[in-house]
Amino acid sequence: MRLKITEQQSNDLKHKDVCTAVGWSSNNELYSCGDDKTVWRWNLNGEPLAKVCDSDSFITDIHWLPVPTKKAANTQNDVFVLGGADGSFSLISKSGRIDKIVKDAHLGAVVCVRWNHEGTALVTGGEDGVLKIWSRNGQLRSTLATTGKCIYSATWGPPTVIEQNILFTSGKDLIIKPLHATSSAKQMQWKAHDGIVLKVDWNILSKFIVSCGEDGKYKVWDSHGRNLYSSAPFDYSITSVSWSPDGETFAVGSFNTLKICDKTGWAYTRKSTNTGSILNISWTSDGTQLAAAGGNGEVCFAQLVERQLEWRNLVVSINENLKMKVHDILGDTSEEIEFRDKIIKWKLGFGHLVVATASQCWIYDVQSWNSPHQFDVKDNVSLILLSKKIFLMMDNSSGIQVYNYDGKLLSNPKFPGLRTEFLNSNSVSVSNDMICIIDKGEAEGKAVRLFNLTSSKESAEVIVHNMDIMEVALSQFGPLSERKLAFIDRNRDMYICRVGTGSKRPDTFKLATMVDSAKWNDHTDMLVAVCDGHFTAWYYPGIVYVDRDLLPYTRTTHDESEVGKRSQIIDFFGTRCNVRRWDGSVVTMSVSPHPLILYELVDKKNWEACLRLCRFVKDRSMWSCLVGMAIKNKEIETAETALAALEEVDKVQYMLKVKSIPSVEGRNAAMALYMRNIDEAESILLQAGLMYRAIKMHIKLYNWTRALELAVKNKNSTYSHIDTVVWYRRKYLEGINRQENDPVFLQYESLSVDWVVMKEKIRNEKEKEKQKNKR
Amino acid sequence: MWQPHESSLVTFDEDHNLRIFDAEKFKQSQLLHKKSVEFTDKIGQFEDLMKDVMSVLKVKGERIENEKLKAIGLRNRVKGEEEIRRSNVRDYQTLISEKHIELERHAAELESLSKIEQEQKKMIESLSSSEPPESHN
């Protein structure tokens, strides 16, 4: 990623004095203001359009009222707020008409002004060290804080349903203060820099804070004030920082310097400018361009160029904003594609390239670059996610939309409280038949909503967790019944959960702790994650729902090559996995190719070949995977062989016993029981009419109450098994030397059990099952 | 009757021209007239000369002034050069350190990739040396 800078000639500066602040309007025009008491309007290319208005006082800050969508921008009254050095602030419309001036808002100058994300409230900080909250119309709502020191910068935190925090600077400290004083929310204050903190910004998507100060450092913090990154000191004090709208990068401005950094702190690129100290930076809403206010009066425009994506043998790069180059490394061929307008978001994978420009979306097949599908988009696309057959696109006007690769709209899932401006690639996931979204509305991020795309009705399954869910990822492999969701919560614990089964109670299982990032493979069920700085792979996470004892065998950890903490997995295609380390370097990790082959063979139901492969590899992990897959597919023979190879004698014995069960349903139920699905096993048996087997199963599980329940329910049929249950129960109690005290069983206290009759009944039942199966 | 006046004695000279002044006075005034004309001519000449001199001096002066400014400018530049060089050095140093960091990143990337290459080579070797694995067709 590089910056392309457009600067004005130094003899043609529009601001005759310091340019103090800049802000992009909703239709992508830049408004700049300065100490020459004027506001100027510029277009995207950095050409001055006109002077908007004059002010009575020196202007210290500008901020546009946020508008959620392009459409709203056209209908709503577009307003920005100016802070003045005489202690006033003014609300001014786009045309330059002054809507309202609030005089004497602060003693001394108003230093910073900031709208909240909904555009319903305004915070101002002044030289007098007072922080005030104002309504949309400029009515004073409250005085939030009074500190002794000048407030150089203030910003609103990520809004949640219950609380809204405001972050502001006070000398060398940063302070987070809740807007409404409740018992649960507390003010937080910490020393952030060795010099005065000059600017602070809080991103609503990544929830990270970035601050800079006179000590020449910029620092990244999480929302609890923990330091994640601290830069080496600059030669000059750093005068401005600003998050890009997607929260992935931030811009840093210092004396004659503009820098773009990743959210983990390392720098993508640095560029020298002729601006003097950069006092303020503003990003366009699509995050492709930014403007900086120079201390010498210059307004500097910068574009992000030379972005690049890789997938298998393809490298796609944008050199100029409208031109894209596709390079095939294998054939060493290139293709150039030109677009009519600016490329905003793009994604490569699953054999497709999806490019969203300012007005259109183009879908390319990597096989044929000449015939793209295309449709119009209404707003700036904020997210594109791909899967094998479908892809997801998100913008603030139309919400979340699911398309197939022919450009046909498949679904547009909605739920109350869905706000796309708070979602990013971590909070949404897509697979062939399902999408999932973290519910940040009513559930406050503690639940995941799942939308099944195969069913016509938009039924939403909800998985509720006891803590904030930070990241979600859906598995890509297999049919809907194989679909699994991996999610990471606030404690960085990773859970796995079966979805799409329609069961009310999702069976979540904690897979790992201290997980920084996780990713599913593109065409198998492999899952990789960075756990505690180690690269870890699960070859068959589904083993959790087959045989949890084997889970440790199917997991491998690369011990010798530590990727380091806070690494992010970028992609995981085939056996190759790209991981971005905290210092910005992309390292490639690989997983063993054998599981991939195994998946392929299982997909073709070639169990013979699976066994041969495992014998060749001679690896416990492979055998364990095979056990899982075989049992899942009810392949008892294969499972038995694999378990034998693992030397799991007890399980082999069980498999042998299963094999001896005469009926198919009985075997299926026994396999379900092996997978610990008691309910499923019971329903299989009951559906097949194998009542005795069901009762016996519960007896064996010491599930006396349910056994008796079934027996009682069935007492009017030819054979009632109440006596059997009671007999086994008595025998059991005798064995452990206890008295019956269960009231349900106490009522059968007097029942006499004839052992001979009972045995006869059981024999009859078994005979019946055999007969039935023969027919 | 016209009375001749003493002070305005009108006479005739030898050429029979009518004279108001007497001959002596006339001669002197004529001389005076000639001398005056000569004098104004000379003054005029002097003035032109002075103008020339002045313009020449002015040009010279300007040139001197320019040179002086140039010299001052040069002197400042020399003084500033030190500062510029220092800041350049600083700039280049930051550039170098940035490139170093980038190099490190690429080195790490290369290292991981070569490790994978090795792994794959080993895999190929093991596959080709031992019994070939069953064909998965």
TrEMBL record, chain A:
- Designated name of the protein: Intraflagellar transport protein 80
For whether the record's keyword set contains Transferase, the answer is: no
Read off the PANTHER family from this record.
OUTER SEGMENT 5
The opening ranks of the lineage are: Eukaryota, Discoba, Heterolobosea, Tetramitia, Eutetramitia
Has keyword Ribosomal protein?
no
Q: Which domain of life is it from?
A: Eukaryota
* Localization in the cell: Cell projection, Cilium
The record's GO CC annotations read: cilium; intraciliary transport particle B
Q: Which GO terms describe its biological process?
A: cilium assembly
The IFT80 second beta-propeller domain is annotated at 306-593
Keywords, comma-separated and alphabetical: Cell projection, Cilium, WD repeat
Q: Where's the IFT80/172/WDR35 TPR domain?
A: 622-771
Which parts of the chain are WD repeats? 103-135, 190-222
Automatic annotation (TrEMBL), chain B:
Q: Which UniProt keywords apply?
A: Cell projection, Coiled coil
Q: Does the keyword Coiled coil apply?
A: yes
A cellular component term from Gene Ontology for this protein is: ciliary base
Pfam families annotated for this entry? IFT20
This protein's record includes keyword Coiled coil: yes
Q: Can you tell which superkingdom this protein's organism belongs to? A: Eukaryota
Query: InterPro entries from the entry?
Result: FT20 (IPR028172)
Query: Where does it localize?
Result: Cell projection, Cilium
> Which BP terms does GO give this entry?
cilium assembly; protein localization to cilium
Q: What is its main location?
A: other
Note the PANTHER family from the entry. INTRAFLAGELLAR TRANSPORT PROTEIN 20 HOMOLOG
Protein name, entry field: Intraflagellar transport protein 20
Classification of source organism: Eukaryota, Discoba, Heterolobosea, Tetramitia, Eutetramitia
